[in-house]
Every structure is written in C-alpha cells, then in structure tokens.
Amino acid sequence: MSKGLGQSIPRRGNCWDNAPQESFHGHTKDHVKNKNCKYHHELEREVHLYLHYCNNFRYQWGLKKMTPVQYRNHLLRTA
C-alpha cells in the first residue's frame, strides 16, 4: 500500500467487474518490451513509456475516438 493501491474485490457472482483492468494488463504485457530489461528500474521505465503512450496517443472507441488526455480536456472544456 506504499503507492496508495488497494486490492480489487469484485461483487459476488459478477466476473465482469475486473474485465477492463484485465484487458488493460493483457495489452500491457503484449506491448511492454520487458525482454531486454535486466533491472527493475528499466522495466519501470518501459511501463511508464507505455502508460504515456496509452494516455496521450492511443485512441479509445469508448472515449469518442479520443485519447484519455484529449477526452479529459474535452470534458473540462464543456463542464
């Protein structure tokens, strides 16, 4: 809990609660170049690069084909 994270506990009988997180982690494992990482800080850097890509350049159908940053800015402008 040093980074403020908590365990995800889905509602009883609803396996779909964690589907978005599972999907995201599956994509992360596919795209992060971890084979060349010898040290933890190298892997951490690769994950940060992927998160930066996802937030700033990867368009999402569920966000009106905008990146998460574009969508957030859109919501802030219209609020």
Structure description:
- The mean pLDDT is 87.
- The longest helix has 17 residues, at 40-56.
- The protein is extended.
- It has one domain.
- It has 79 residues and is mostly helical.
- It has helices at residues 19-31, 40-56, 68-78.
Biggest sheet, in brief?
Answer: none
Query: What count of structural domains?
Result: 1
- C-alpha Rg, in Å? 16 Å
Helicity level: 40-55%
Mean of residue pLDDT values: 87
Percent strand: under 5%
Number of strands: 0
* Low-pLDDT segments: none
- How many helix segments? 3
> What structural class results from the helix and strand content?
mainly alpha
Distance N to C terminus: 33 Å
Tell me, briefly, the overall form: extended
Encode the helix/strand succession as letters: HHH
Helix and strand arrangement:
Elements: H1 19-31, H2 40-56, H3 68-78
